[in-house]
Design brief:
6 strands; RMMBL; 2 domains; alpha/beta; elongated; two-stranded parallel ribbon; single chain
């Protein structure tokens, strides 16, 4: 798809730093996919009006409605600052342990299971 100039890739919503989407949005001449450099000749279009993600308030509502309720939440999506801010809000608004993920951080999934 990317090497063919007859194709068009539509990027919807925010493209996080370090992702292929961000590279394409910034006009990269090639991107790495499955270990191979792929030339970009397709037309790249950014649709800034459509978001494919829930906002923080929607995510907090979703976590709050989960049954059984988690004991801990690890925020791993988005920019570092956004993940940190969401973790703070989750902890404050739902009184549960929430923390942003970190690169190369080992977690024990059993610690995240509900106490209910």
């Amino acid at each position: 798809m990317l090497p063919d100039e007859r194709n068009c890739v539509v990027l919807t919503g925010y493209q996080a730093v370090g992702t292929r989407g961000r590279s394409l949005a910034e006009g990269a001449p090639c991107v790495k996919m499955l270990g191979t450099e792929v030339a970009v000749h397709a037309r790249i279009v950014k649709d800034e009006e459509f978001s494919v993600h829930a906002d923080a308030s929607e995510l907090i509502d979703w976590v709050g409605a989960l049954r059984p309720r988690p004991r801990k939440v690890l925020t791993v999506h988005g920019e570092k600052e956004s993940a940190e801010a969401l973790a703070v809000r989750l902890a404050q608004e739902l009184t549960l342990e929430a923390m942003p993920g970190r690169a190369n951080h080992r977690i024990v999934l059993a610690e995240f299971l509900s106490a209910e």
